[in-house]
Amino acid sequence: MRNLFIPFALLCFCTASPAQTTKQEVLSKIEYAGSNYFSYPGGHRITPAPKGYVPFYISHYGRHGSRYMVSNRAYHNMLPLFEKAEKEGKLTKLGQQVYVKLKKAYANAHLHGGELTALGGRQHEGIAERMYKNYPEVFVHDSRVEASSTMVHRCQESMQFFCGKLKHLNHDVNIQQRTTNDDRYFMRIDDVEVPEGALQKDIDKRMSEINDSLRRTVKLAPRLFTDPRFVEENLKDPLQLVKDFYDISQDMQCLPELKINFKGIFTKDELFDLWRVANNGWVRGQGFIQGATPNYRKHYNLLHNFLDRADEAISKNQKGAALRFGHDSYIVPLAFIMQFDGSRDFPTVNHLEDLYQYYASFKITPMAANIQFIFYRNPGSDDILVKFLLNEVEQHIPLKTDMWPYYHWTDVKRYYEQRMASF
């Protein structure tokens, strides 16, 4: 049984949030400005388990790895514009250079919209290898590893790369992979409805004003076209130039082998502003601002699946892992529901211009982002411990523990069941 006589000094709320994000932090690594295009940053140091506790089970949700843009719409918008400008002699020297890169990038992306890139496969192999090496006790001959993915091909491929690496490291591990609509109740959320938030219209209006203002700070057209009226005369929405080139330029992080760099078309200040626009979209879409439509509730079934599968493994004394492969639109709300570091403090509707200080998308959902629950047991005790990783970084949650980053599973389960029932 758990020792209930814990010195008060050791019993604490481990709810420390990281310092607010600054402009300087975002620009310290310009790739951060790519938001959810940011390439996975790699592994981190892990804290040794308390004496006598051994890992036996892992529950995981992973975003697909680096990918091509979901569609080639941005190329289809930009290429005719640049082709016309070239014929009319209205490209600047920089515009001519950008047009060459644009054609090369599109030649590679043609017919590959939304597909996993080679880097995306390597990212999942790296995560799998670190998982195996950090928790070898989980992956033994009698372990049971079950992997599932959404029906989207890049998620299926991510699962295959991940499981292939585990199998390569230990041929004896039993791995079952599946992609089926039977998992739709927790892997998809199309059928879940939530009530509209009382302040949603105000939030939408203010967010739109902020985002349009930020995009208008970007003076891209004069750098690329000699005629200042050319873009306005040839695009229904002149801001489309900025929107599409942000996506195209940042997607190059997913394709390092192309060695194409569009960074020079934006200043650092402009990239910061465009990152803020993308960052705002994640919070707006999931409803994290007080009074917004709470779309994050649509993902409660995913956390319930984590809780239920863990209880099953514990009760049956199983070793192994439950691996799930999907999308950033699941990582973002799950991190919020669980109140991970950097995903629990948000400004009010009256202070949305400061949102970037409280939430940084590149920290939460880079390509191949993942959430892991690592479970531990002590053969001499019935107490189960768990720790939480976001992108392989150990997380605090708003719950008492005497041994951070490890939490008592019974406390964790009770906390999240009550939380989902009340908010």
CATH class of the largest domain: Alpha Beta
**Uncertain segments of ≥5 residues (pLDDT<50)?**
1-14
Order of helices and strands: EHEHHHEHEHHHHHHHEHHHEEEEEH
CATH architecture of the largest domain: 3-Layer(aba) Sandwich
Strand content: 5-15%
- The percent of residues in helical segments reads 40-55%
For the largest beta-sheet, the strand count, sense and barrel status come to:
8 strands, mixed
The helix-and-strand class reads alpha/beta
CATH-assigned fold name of the largest domain: Rossmann fold
Number of domains: 2
Tell me the CATH superfamily of the largest domain: Phosphoglycerate mutase-like
Number of helices: 16
Gyration radius over CA? 23 Å
* Terminal CA distance: 32 Å
Description:
- By secondary structure, the protein is an alpha/beta fold.
- The chain has two domains: about 10-65 and about 115-215 and about 265-420, Phosphoglycerate mutase-like (Rossmann fold), CATH 3.40.50.1240; about 70-115 and about 220-265, no CATH class.
- The chain has helices at about 25-30, 75-85, 95-110, 120-135, 155-170, 185, 200-215, 220-225, 230-235, 240-250, 270-285, 300-315, 330-335, 355-360, 360-365, 410-420, and strands at about 10-15, 55-65, 145-150, 175-180, 320-325, 370-375, 385-390, 395, 400, 405-410.
- Strands 2, 3, 4, 5, 6, 7, 8 and 10 form an eight-stranded mixed beta sheet that branches.
- Helix 2 runs antiparallel to helix 3.
- The two termini are about 30 Å apart.
